[in-house]
Write a structure and sequence with these properties.
Organism: Salipaludibacillus neizhouensis
Protein name: DUF3892 domain-containing protein
Strand order of the largest sheet: 1-2-3
Largest sheet: 3 strands, antiparallel
Radius of gyration: 17 Å
Number of helices: 2
Shape: globular
């Protein structure tokens, strides 16, 4: 087995990403809306989303909007036998869905 230094390789990867921040512009497509707030249930699960235009979306509607490309910086992936919404990983916790204000 190769004796690779995984830590060094990862740090090079992170440095490369930091140097290429302009490769993926932060600008949002004019047809996309950003999520600005979330609603959680008593188990702290996100159950609804509010967009910058004030539109309130239940979870299923938000999934459909995200799959259609109408929500900026949102990923949909399949886990636990269902589709899940999450913010695009960008290294910042400030814009994670869990950290957005409540509505």
């Amino acid at each position: 087995m190769d004796s690779k230094n995984f830590e060094d390789i990862y740090n090079q990867y992170k440095t490369q990403g930091a140097n290429n921040t302009n490769d993926y512009p932060e600008n949002v497509n004019s047809t996309q809306e950003q999520i600005v707030a979330v609603r959680k249930n008593e188990d702290d699960d996100i159950i609804a989303f509010k967009t910058e235009s004030g539109k309130e979306l239940d979870y299923v509607s938000a999934l459909e909007e995200a799959k259609s490309g109408n929500l900026a910086h949102i990923d949909v992936f399949h886990r636990y036998g269902r589709d899940i919404i999450r913010s695009e990983p960008d290294g910042s916790k400030d814009n994670n869905l869990d950290n957005l204000p409540s509505f």
